[in-house]
Amino acid sequence: MAVSATLAANDVIARRRTEGLPVVPLGFGEAGLPVHPMLTAALGEAAGSAGYGPVAGIPELREAAAGYWSRRGLPTSPAQVVAAPGSKPLLWAILGARRGGVALPRPSWVSYAAQAAMHGLDTVRIRSLGGVPDPAELDAVAAALRLSTVIVTLPDNPTGRLASPAVIRELCEVAERRDLLIISDEIYRDLTDAEFLSPAELVPHRTVVTSGLSKSLALGGWRLGVARFTDDHLRDTVVDTASEVWSAPSRPVQHAAALAFTEPPALVERVAQSRKLHLAVAAAVAQLFDTPTPDGAFYLYPHVPGFRTDRELADHLLARNGIVVLPGAEFGDDPSAGMIRVATSQLYGDTDAQKEQALRSDNPTALPWIAAHLDRIRDALR
Questions:
Q1: Rounded to whole angstroms, how far apart are CA atoms 184 and 155?
Q2: Taking Cα atoms as reference points, which of 333, 352, 340 lies closest to residue 285?
Q3: Phi-psi region of 290 (alpha: psi -120 to 50; beta: other; left: phi over 0)
Q4: Which residues in 6-21 are b (16+ Cβ under 10 Å) and which e?
Q5: CA 184, 185, 190: angle at the middle one, nearest 5?
Q6: Using 50, 70 and 90 to split pLDDT, how confident is the model at 19?
Q7: What pTM value is reported for the model?
Q8: Minimal CB count within 10 Å: which of 19, 23, 80, 185?
Q9: pLDDT of residue 358
Q10: Domain coordinates of the chain in residue numbers?
Q11: 51, 350 in Cβ contact below 8 A?
């Protein structure tokens, strides 16, 4: 099994910068913004907390995460919450507790299929409708392929689209009819202005929601994810797995995350600023690629004709223009389809000062360092 394509792209970006080569970093989906001072202070205050703590997470964090979901129409008790060093380990543990096949959108985030394969689970890829496998096709293949689980991403990575409430309702009807567990990856939930409906609002008894702080508050390197369970047996199985694999999340990080999930006004404002910036820059890049403006997050999934494979296209953009993108095949798409994933969240500046200015700007795409990236993309696509 190869290194995750998204992390490999980050290595390419770092290597080119070290070598002094030009780079337009559109390959890695890191939020690319400074940590809010309130969170760095909270982390520092808890630096002396060196004990392991409870496997499922400290009580303050689980209570705060429960409040976060409850404010979004998902009544949650702290007992339903499990924290981990990132949402990736939670997904891995949940899939490890499953039997039967797993349905994925096509395209979908690179780690879903990889983790299913690690557990020996068969996967089927179904045309994506905003991060959700087409419910009609899912219904048609569920029984024949002995599916037990379907994974959705709301909003979607890699397309930046968000499934409509109508699609979510159809998905939930199929899940009920075919007895499917829905894993709803909602880590980008706070980075959209579009109407949002979680499957957990309709079929809470068969939905696990995962989230974290790596996207909305740019804390990817802190490694903190949370999951919301309604099935006690599945929750307990995940906690058992956690006890043998990661023991507990970092305690100082949990203290800072507890503050984040309580959503004090300063952090609510930071998330709002981030959302506005992500959407503005993604919209500008979408216009250059002549592709629809995303509904949320900071991803585009454009079609670029004229190449035999998407890998050939990605290699061409890198060699000729220093533009790093990911081929659609990495997300389960047809290599000959000419699709690439474009992540726009690394275009905000090289310094924290530039990134802070981008956050505060009413017109971030006019800032010289962002405009320069846009010009290079425009030149490459002529």
A1: 10
A2: 340
A3: left
A4: beebbeebeebeeeee
A5: 115
A6: confident
A7: 0.95
A8: 19
A9: 98
A10: 5-30+265-380, 39-262
A11: no
The 10s digit of each residue's pLDDT in 106-155 is 999 999 999 999 999 999 999 999 999 999 999 999 988 999 999 999 99
pLDDT digits (tens, 9 = 90+) for 219-265: 999 999 999 999 999 999 999 999 999 999 999 999 999 999 999 99
Residue 155 phi, psi (nearest 5) = -65, 170
Q: Are 325 and 27 contacting, i.e. CB atoms less than 8 angstroms apart?
A: yes
CA torsion sign for 84, 86, 91, 92 is negative
**Contact status, residue 340 vs residue 160, Cβ threshold 8 Å:** no
**Pairing between strand 101-106 and 123-127?**
parallel
Domain formed by 39-262, architecture: 3-Layer(aba) Sandwich (3.40)
Q: Do 184 and 149 meet the contact criterion of CB atoms below 8 Å apart? A: no
pLDDT at 7: 67
Residue 208's H or E segment, with its range, is strand 207-212
Distance CA 229, CA 234 (A): 8
List the structure tokens of 57: 């997470």
Cα(318)–Cα(311) distance, integer angstroms: 11
DSSP classification of residue 205: G
Work out the angle between the directed axes of helices 37-45 and 265-289 (0-180°, nearest 10).
130
Among candidates 289, 228, 248, which has minimal Cα distance to 54? Answer: 248
The answer to whether the beta carbons of residues 142 and 175 sit under 8 Å apart is no
Contact (Cβ atoms closer than 8 angstroms) between residue 301 and residue 341: yes
* pLDDT score at 2: 61
Residue from 1, 7, 26, 18 nearest 288 by CA: 26
**Two structure tokens written together for 76:** 């949650």
Q: How far apart are the first and last CA of the chain?
A: 37
What does the CA dihedral 66, 67, 69, 73 come to, rounded to 10 degrees?
A: 130
